[in-house]
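Troubleshooting entry. The earlier prediction with adenosine-5'-triphosphate gave an output that would not parse, so I re-checked the input for stray whitespace and re-submitted. Clean input:
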Amino acid sequence: MAGNTTSIRLPRCAETALETIESAGFEAWVVGGFVRDCLMGRDPGDLDIASSAPWERAASIFRKAGAPVFETGAKHGTITVMIEEAPIEVTAYRADGEYTDGRHPDSVRFVDSIEEDLARRDFTMNAIAYHPARGLIDPFGGQNDIRNGLIRCVGDPRTRFSEDALRILRAVRFSAQLGFAIEKDTRSAMEDLAGGLSRVAEERKAAELQKLLCSEHAGDCLMGNMTVIGQVIPELAPLQGFDQKTPFHCYDVLEHTAHVIDLVDCKPALRWAALLHDVGKPETFTIDETGQGHFKGHPAASARIARDVARRLRLPKAQTRDMLTLIELHDSPIIPKKPQVKHAIHQLGDSPDLLSDLISLKHADATARTPLYSKPRIRTAELLEGLLTEVLENGEAYSLAQLDLSGASLIDAGIPAGPQVGRLLEECLDAVIDGKLPNEEGELAGFALSRYREDARA
Ligand code: ATP
Ligand code: MG
């Protein structure tokens, strides 16, 4: 098939990889998201190459050329090659085999042509190949769909979603990242077949959800795709249309959630916390005699539900821990004063980053409500942001590590080793944070020894 004349600037490592395979007598193309992103003028992500070389041959060609090779997905025909320290995935031309479980093809069939390889890809915008000398191959009108901002399946959407239901969630994720609309037939097949997502491995869904959450149009995407997203996280379904019956909230819980997601920084734990921070509201809802709604205890209820969601989706442990902390504390006030800010960092495991995320969540939570009532909470969040910056810029102590006194020096001064040493250090830190003592070894040691003697007398 003749290519066209559009030219893409490839990084040198990509040109080297293509030349290395082709000089051994095979054919190779850059494919997938890299080509799509370059055509859109976006920063491209990972580099994928499709090639006529069987993976074992590709591996030996690159090894002979001195490039490290990892057999990352050999059973699907994929190896990862390191060229100039950049990882490049090289996959043999393949067509998907039969799917009996709607999860992974039972077998992979290797094919001879790039056109057959492109035909098994999910969306037209992802089924374009590029070569610096031969130009673009675009058998399904991907460039046209990119120009029109449309996500469209390659082939019959019902067949493609029945083969692999993850593609339904991928369509939603791409619409969140690219701001594209979903073509009508593709959309109606997605809605009809969304139930198939229950057969897809949780880790695959989690990876797509995370990309969705960390994208520019995540909030709109959540609002417009609850049929699909509600299949993966059914706990979110009750938020849609949930009237909070309070003057503080002008949105239902789902719309409030969508705004909060868009307002917080794009960090995984924080975006997950934004998604799930109010998921416990429906079950804690009560109405008082004036007809006003209340959600007492909703942060703890949300955290409990979020823990189940994270466990099911097998989210990473550290990310889950931070997400749960943010959800549990999102509605607990922090007084906007320096000592309280330093105590808060210490209570959050000496993590200024986690406090910064918590303030960001509070700021967003305050902003996404009735404007008339949002000002005081927004002001508090701004003050907290300013105080946190000051604490860090001045190098003010908030942790035991920054204290000018160590456990060892207390033991040297005669205090027996044991938990009491830790408690005395904590008391010293509290006194420094509260401005009662300078962070100076002599003063701190004197204070600790006198506290030790008082305890011994008691
Ligand atoms: P990203 O920028 O997030 O990496 P991408 O388009 O490169 O986006 P990948 O998940 O890296 O997405 O997949 C690379 C390519 O493989 C896709 O562009 C698409 O051509 C194809 N692909 C990936 N997953 C599927 C799938 N489930 N079904 C069909 N084709 C797929
Ligand atoms: Mg990719």
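This one parsed fine. The first strand starts at residue 28 and ends at 31.
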